[in-house]
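Narrative progress, year one. The postdoctoral researcher (J.K.) led the effort to move from monomer predictions toward full complexes, under supervision of the PI. The following entry was the first complex the group processed end to end, covering 940 residues in total.
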Amino acid sequence: MNDVKIGLEIHVQLVSLKTKLFCSCSADYRGKPPNTNVCPVCMGLPGTLPVLNEKAVEEAIKVAKALSANISNVSYFFRKNYFYPDLAKNFQITQYDKAGGIPFATGGYLKLSNGRRIRIRRMQLEEDPGRIYYEVGIQEAKYSLIDYNRHGVALIEIVTEPDIREPREAREFLEKLSGILEELGIPVGGYEGAIRCDANISLREGARVEVKNITGFSAVEKALSYEITRQRNLIKRGIKVERETRHWDERRRITASLRKKEMEEDYRYFPEPDLPPLIVRKDVLERIEGIVKPIEEVIKDYVKKYGVEEVIAERIARDRRLRTLFDRSVKNRPDLARHLASLLANEIPFLMKRKEIELPSNVKGLLIVAEARRDGLSRDEILKLLEDWLHGKEVIHHKATTLKEADLEDIVKKVTKKNPKVVEDAKKNPRALNYLMGLALREAKGVIDKKKLFDLLRRSLGL
Amino acid sequence: MKWERLSAIRLIEELKSGSITSEEISAYFLDRIKKVDHILNSFITLNEKAVKEAEKIDKDKKGGRLAGLPIAIKDNITTKGIRTTCASRILENYVPPYDAEVISRIKREGGIIIGKTNMDEFAMGSSGENSGFGPTKNPRDLNRVPGGSSSGSAAAVAAGLAPLALGSDTGGSIRAPASFTGIVGLKPTYGAVSRFGLIAYANSLEQIGPMGKNVLDAAYLYSIIYGEDEKDSTSLPSPPLSIERISNFEAKGVKVAILTDLVSRVDEPVRKVFERGINYVSEIGAEVSEVKLEGIDLALPAYYVIACSEASSNLARYDGVRFGVDCRTNLSWRDAYKEVRKLFGKEVKVRIMLGAYALSAGFFEEYYVKAVKVRRKIREGLKKLLKRYDYIAIPTMPVLPWRIGEKLDDPLYVYLSDALTVPANLAGVPAISLPIGLADGLPVGIQFIADEFEEEKLFGLAKRFEEEAGELGVVDL
C-alpha cells in the first residue's frame, strides 16, 4: 500500500489549563448549562479585546518540545474569516504559515513502532469554536441551538506531513500522541472531544481528499480504510479522484461529500491587529526545556550522562512509568544509575509480566534494591527484594550486616563441612571450586567481600 | 449663569468649591441638550440616570478629579447599561453589559456620562452624515457638516451641550470634526489609551481621544483616560502628563516643520488661514522650516485598504445571533445573516466589500500587503522627520466644511478630505487639531504632530498657539 499518503490535522484541547485562550472564563466547560461559561470577550461582544493566556503558551511549548519541534521565537496570530454560527466573531483567532504568518512551532516528528518517523509540519495555537445542537436530527431540525461554553478554549492544531502510509499507522500516531500528551499532564483521553482529527488522503496521482468529523482513534482507522477502498474503486473504474472535503458518517460508516474544491471558502487570513506578536520568552523556554525532552534526547542523555547501555536506556525512556521512576531515583543517586537502569529495564518488567501489579512510586525502596545489586547480591535475592518493593513491603538490604571476616569463615566452615566430597574434588578441579564458591555465596545473607570469601575458601582447602 | 461658557477646568473648580453641585450641572446640561439638540442631532441616547448619579456623587463627596462633571461619549464607546449603537440600526437596541476602560476611568474620577453622541456609522465617514440616526449639523453653520466621524461629540462641545467629550480617531475622526466645529481634539499615540470597549472599525489605527473647547480642557480629560491597560494587549505605558507643565510651556526655539507637499494641495481659503497660523507659530518663538516627505501621497490609499480590510473582519460579528437585533426567522442561518446585515448603512457596506476584496485570495498581496509596506515607509519617514524637528505642522482639513448632502454623490471628495489626518494614524504618532481662525465664517484648524508619547509636548505647543490665536468659544444657538 505504498501509494497511499495520509496527513493528519489534529486538534488538541489544552485540558490542563484553568482558563480559556483569550479570556478568563473557565476552560472546564463540560457539563455546564448552555451559555453560562461565557463573558463579553468569548461572546465576541463589540469592543472586547483578546488577551493571550500565558499558560497556554507554556503548555504549547511542552507539546512542541515533546515532539522535537522547533519553537518560533516570534509567531503571529491571524484571523481566519468565515461565517458560521458557532464562531462568535465570525472569525477564528488562529495562526498561519502563509501571508507572512509564522506558526508557533514547525518541524518535529513522532516515531511509530515500526521505526517510521511521521514528520510534523506545524503546530499552532487557536481558539475552539462553540457547539451547535439540534434537538432533532440535523435534517428535520427547524432551528439550531448554539452553546458558546466551549468557545475560546485553547487548542493546539498539529498538522503532520503526508507521511502516514496506512490507516493503522494513523491510529498508532494518535494513540502515541495521546500518550505523550498524557505524560505532559494534558490527559486528552479523559475528556470527550478533547482530541479531534481531520485526515487528508491521496492515492498515487489522485487529488487530496479531506475527511472531517472523525471522533475516536478507531474511527480514524475505519474512515481511512473506507476512503482508501472508495478511491481505489474509482481509480479502477478509470474515474478521477477529485479534490474535495468529505464527512465521516459514524453511523453509516461511510464518508460522504461535503463540498467540492471550488466551494472551498476563501478565509481571507490577515494578522490579528488586537494581539502583539507572540514572543516566547527565553526564561520560559529554558524552564520548560528542563522539564520536557523528546524521547530521542532522553535516551541520548541516559547513555551520555549515566553510562547506561543504549538498549536499556531506550527501554526505560519509552515507558513513562519506568522513565519517571528512573528520573526520580537517579536524581538522588547518580552513582547507582546503571544498577537502577538494569533493574528498571530487566527485572522489574520481568516481575510485572509474571504478575499483574502496579508500579509503586516509592523511590527509597528501589534505591535500596539498587544498592543491593551494586553490593553483589544474587539475582534471586534481588528479585526477592524487588517483590517486597512491588508489594509495598519494607525493603531490607542487609547492608547493615555487612559480613565480617569471622562471618565469612563461618560460612566457609559450614559449606566445606556439608560437602566433603566436593571439597576433595575442588582441590584438583577449579569447576568444583566454583561450585563451592556458589554455595558459599548463597549461604551469605548480607553484603560480602567476594574476593575475601574466595580467598578464605581456597585457604581452607589448602590451596 | 451660562455654565456652558466656562471651561471644563473652571467648572470642575466650581464643583470642587461647592458653588454648584454636580446634580445642578448635570440637570443644566441635560436641559440644554433637550432644548437645543433637536437642531443639531448631536446625541443619540441620553443617560436618563445622569442626574441621579450626580446626586450620588454630591452626597458621597468623593468627587474625584472630574468632581461630578458631565461628559459626552461617542456612541462607539461601550457604556454599561446605556445603549451603544455606533449610530447603526444593526445595534439599535444593544445595551452593553460592561464599561469600556476609558469609561471606568472617567467614572472612577467622578465623571458623569451625560449621553452618547451621534457619529458616522461605525466611525466610517468624515462628515457626520453617514449615521443611521440622521446627520449631525455643524453648530457654526447649521447647513454644513460638522466633520466626522466624531460629529456629535464635536458639535456638542462647540454648542456647549457638554463641557467635554470623548471621540475616537481612526483616520482623522477626532481632528476633522474638531477642525470643522472650531474646537480642540487629540488623537493620542497608538497604545496610549486603552481600546478596551471601543467598538472596532480599524483596530491597528484607532485611538480614543479627548475633545474640548480649549487645549487645557482636552489635556485634562486626556490625563484621566491615558495609561496602560492589561485588557488591551496593544496598550503601552506613557510618561506622566502634567497640566502645570503644559500651562507653562515655553515654545521659544522649538523646531516646527511644515510638510509643504501636503499644504500645497489644500483649498485656497484654508491655505490663507493656515499661513496666518504659521505666523502665530513664529510669533510664539518657534523656528519654522519647510520640508517634504516622499510617498506621503500614498498614505490615503494605504489607509483605506488597511482600515477597510480590518473593518470587513471586525463587522462580521453583527449577525443578530448574540446581541442587537433578533435574527430568529424561518430562514436558514445564511439567509438570516443576509437579512440582518441589510441593516448596515451604505457606506458601511461599501467598506466591508472593499476590505473583503483587498483580503481575498489573489488580491491580498496586491492590496493589503502593499498597503502595509506603504504604512511602514510613512511611519519611518515621519519618525525620521520627528527626530530632526520637534513638531510637524499641517492644516487639519484640506477644505472648509461642505454643505450637508452636497457631496453625497462624490464619495472620493470626502475620502480625499482625510489626506492630512491619516498619516498620523498610519504612523501611530499623536496629533492635535485646534482652531486658527475663520475663513468665510467657517473654522479652520491647524494640526500639530509630535513623536510617540509626546502628548505633553504637543499640548504645550498647542496651549501657546491657542494663547496667540484665541479660542473660538461656544456657539450660542
